[in-house]
Automatic annotation (TrEMBL):
The keyword Lipid metabolism does not apply. GO terms for molecular function: ubiquitin protein ligase activity. It comes from Cinnamomum micranthum f. kanehirae. Residues 272-346 form the U-box domain. Its EC number is 2.3.2.27. Gene3D superfamilies: Leucine-rich Repeat Variant, Zinc/RING finger domain, C3HC4 (zinc finger). PANTHER family: U BOX DOMAIN-CONTAINING, U-BOX DOMAIN-CONTAINING PROTEIN 19. Keywords: Repeat, Transferase, Ubl conjugation pathway. Pathway: Protein modification; protein ubiquitination. This is RING-type E3 ubiquitin transferase. SMART domains: ARM, Ubox. ARM repeats lie at residues 417-459, 542-582. It catalyses: S-ubiquitinyl-[E2 ubiquitin-conjugating enzyme]-L-cysteine + [acceptor protein]-L-lysine = [E2 ubiquitin-conjugating enzyme]-L-cysteine + N(6)-ubiquitinyl-[acceptor protein]-L-lysine. PROSITE patterns: ARM_REPEAT (PS50176), U_BOX (PS51698).
């Protein structure tokens, strides 16, 4: 039986039969589900083996009864149908329980929830017994043997008192003992630890990784409900399993992590428009998509504000809501995460804890998870420093996974000294090792102390070396993204720009990289342009021709990012002159008119305004000869947004809506308005809301660059 992936574990959304269902159809449905449950007799139960098999045995006996009903054509009276309906609901829930008890990746969680699982089994078995007691067997055409068997099953079900299996109790105690050792900063015995996870059926790196991924997914779901107690428990278990994965298993078996999911979602992404990932209310990228009763999807925070304002209709369709229930749209959430992953971006809004799986208050009860991570960090750094080539590669890979979205893990690994050893390893001649190492450094560069250690440890040169000559394109892409994070610090931005090879290497990636690489290179360039001295250097490195070539890309995000950097370069006279040499004004106007993306339109207007200011009267005169430009700008005035204000500014220039006595006064007036409307280069928007604040040098936390709403990751 295929597991219902949309159902949360240990939830039991049973479907009640409709009142008009025919008795024969209902009986067949009961028989079918009994047969499905009977197939679980051949499955392995890492925990709750006794009570699960007792339930399977009793339902196997019921199957004989119901098949007898069907074979003899027994008359199913209204009272019989009522009993069968109750039994059918109970059987669905038992099937869900059996699915959960045999689910790969959820073994530790099901063990930890032992009392809940056992209580649910007992409740359902007794509920079936109650329904059997009400079954009017005397008035039905069944043989004496079957009738006696049913009475026996009902009697046994009423008396069932199977508690938590003694083996499960011992395993739970062993888990708590290990957690206690972590809390007391005692390194657990690896042999005892291996024996423990083997009892749970966790026998390989992949098994262990499945457990971690499941626990992290559960944390995502609990975050949306702000269930701090469950989040803390899950956080502790993630720390426990991370330690087991890193310490107990020397070989990463099976395919690369998430490779199957990536291929699946990548196929789906090819058929979707990324604009569909924006909330219809806020027009921002959804971070917690939920479905309302009309079937429309919104970001949770936006639709909650709508409902709290007293609105009881769908904002998009106007249809009246049957209820205010919000159901997480896990499919869209996974697609958004994969979309961001493919673009080099991982969502990380401040205040949205769902993307920071361990950002909880560290109390005494959660200290075991924290200490487990610290011990694992020390273990991995030791492997980096003294291990074989294979051990160092595996350690780099573990660090890459651990630091992808987790601030605590980053802090522990930075504190343990991982950065210096990763920098030593980055020159490896093994392409996989270099890729894993560069990805790990990228993730650690998101940590405020990580940036400092990378820079002060002489990390710029080896990172630039990978950017230029990385053995894999993925490593080059990650090197560019790392420069983006380092460039959030003022002095590092200046230092990177003074190295001629840095801007040349980024321009090289713009030319020959994948779409992912081009996006990362563009973002890194944009960050470096926040230092004024880097503008001329970027122009000299050939940034503008390379960016211009990308404007014909089929990938909207690449076009948007390229325009954003061009807009930043055009704000200075030398940049405007270089843009005018490479791009026809008419091409920019056509792009503005034909673009469907608001961001692309806004960047086009910004460039045109800068060209007017820096290019002189001839440029203004050329634009005035394009009536389609004025018409397009007039349409944009209705938007009431920052883009409309920029459109109004450009219209003012073209229509001479100024009192002036000379061209110089006109330019001066426009420049004053540019300060208001165009702001600094640091306020340019990137796709899906990526925004670098003018507070970028004051990095807070390790998930974001300044106040930006997204962060680049591997």
């Amino acid at each position: 039986m295929t597991q219902n992936s949309s159902r949360r574990i240990l939830t039991f959304p049973a479907v009640h039969p409709s009142e008009d269902v025919s008795p024969a159809v209902l009986l067949q449905a009961v028989i079918n589900i009994c047969r499905i449950i009977s197939t679980y007799s051949s499955k392995s139960f890492p925990s709750h083996n006794r009570i699960a098999r007792e339930a399977i045995r009793e339902i196997g006996s019921l199957l004989i009864l119901f098949e007898d009903f069907q074979d003899h054509g027994s008359v199913l009276t209204e009272s019989v149908v009522l009993c069968l309906s109750e039994i059918y609901v109970c059987l669905q829930k038992i099937q869900f329980l059996l699915e959960d008890c045999t689910r790969e990746g959820a073994r530790l969680w099901v063990l930890v929830q032992s009392k809940r699982v056992v209580d649910e089994f007992q409740l359902l078995i007794r509920s079936i017994a109650t329904a059997l007691d009400l079954l009017p067997l005397a008035s039905m055409d069944v043989c004496v043997e079957v009738r006696e068997m049913v009475e026996l099953v009902a009697k046994q079900a009423r008396k069932v008192k199977i508690g938590i299996d003694p083996d499960d109790k011992q395993t739970s105690m062993d888990v708590h003992l290990i957690l206690s050792q972590f809390e007391q900063k005692i390194v657990p015995n690896s042999t005892d630890l291996k024996r423990l996870v083997t009892r749970l059926g966790i026998r390989s790196w992949t098994d262990c990784n499945r457990e971690i991924r499941f626990l992290e997914e559960e944390m995502e779901k609990e975050n949306s409900k702000e269930n701090e107690r469950q989040i803390m428990l899950l956080s502790i278990l993630v720390g426990f399993m991370n330690y087991c994965r890193g310490v107990l298993f020397d070989v990463v078996d099976g395919p690369n992590v998430e490779s199957t999911d990536i291929k699946y979602y990548s196929k789906m992404l090819d058929c979707l428009n990324p604009e569909d990932f924006r909330c219809p209310i806020s027009l921002e990228l959804m971070t917690d998509p939920v479905i309302i009763t009309t079937g429309q999807t919104y970001d949770r925070s936006s639709i909650q504000k709508w409902l709290k304002a007293g609105n009881l209709s769908c904002p998009k369709t106007g249809e009246k809501l049957k209820s205010t229930e919000l159901i997480p749209n896990l499919v869209i959430q996974n697609l958004i995460q994969q979309f961001l992953h493919n673009g080099g971006v991982t969502s990380s809004k401040p205040g949205n804890r769902s993307h920071d799986l361990r950002r909880t208050h560290v109390t005494r009860s959660s200290a075991s998870g924290t200490e487990a991570m610290r011990m694992l960090a020390v273990f991995l750094v030791e492997k980096l420093s003294t291990g074989t080539e294979a051990e160092r590669n595996k350690a780099a890979y573990e660090i890459r996974l651990l630091t992808k979205s987790n601030t605590l893990n980053r802090a522990c690994l930075v504190e343990a000294g991982a950065i210096l050893w990763l920098l030593n390893l980055i020159s490896s001649k093994n392409p996989t090792t270099q890729h894993n190492t560069m990805a790990a450094l990228l993730n650690l560069s998101k940590h405020s102390k990580g940036k400092t250690l990378i820079f002060e440890s002489g990390g710029l040169d080896p990172i630039l070396s990978v950017l230029r000559n990385g053995l894999k394109m993925e490593a080059r892409q990650n090197a560019a993204a790392t420069l983006f994070y380092l460039a959030s610090i003022d002095e590092y931005r200046e230092a990177i720009g003074k190295i001629p090879e840095s801007l040349l290497a980024l321009v090289g990636l713009l030319r020959d990289g994948t779409d992912h690489g081009k996006k990362n290179a563009a973002v890194a360039l944009f960050a470096l342009l926040r230092f004024p001295g880097n503008h001329q250097r970027a122009i000299a490195a050939g940034a503008i021709p390379a960016l211009t070539n990308l404007l014909t890309s089929d990938t909207e995000d690449v076009v948007n990012d390229s325009l954003s950097v061009l807009a930043a370069l055009a704000e200075r006279s030398e940049g405007s002159n270089a843009v005018l040499r490479e791009i026809e004004i008419s091409s920019l106007v056509k792009m503005l008119i034909s673009a469907t993306s608001r961001a692309v339109k806004e960047h086009c207007i910004s460039i045109l305004v800068s060209l007017c200011v820096n290019g002189g009267p001839e440029v203004v005169s050329d634009m005035k000869k394009m009536p389609s430009l004025v018409q397009s700008l007039c349409l944009l005035l209705k938007e009431g947004s920052r883009m409309s204000r920029k459109a109004n500014l450009l219209l003012g220039i073209l229509c001479d809506r100024r009192k002036r006595s000379s061209t110089g006064m006109l330019v001066s007036s426009i420049r004053q308005e540019l300060v208001i409307h165009l702001a600094a280069p640091s306020n340019k928007k990137f796709p899906l809301g990526l925004q670098m604040s003018n507070r970028a040098s004051k990095v807070s936390g390790s998930e974001t660059v300044s106040g930006s709403e997204t962060s680049y990751g591997t």
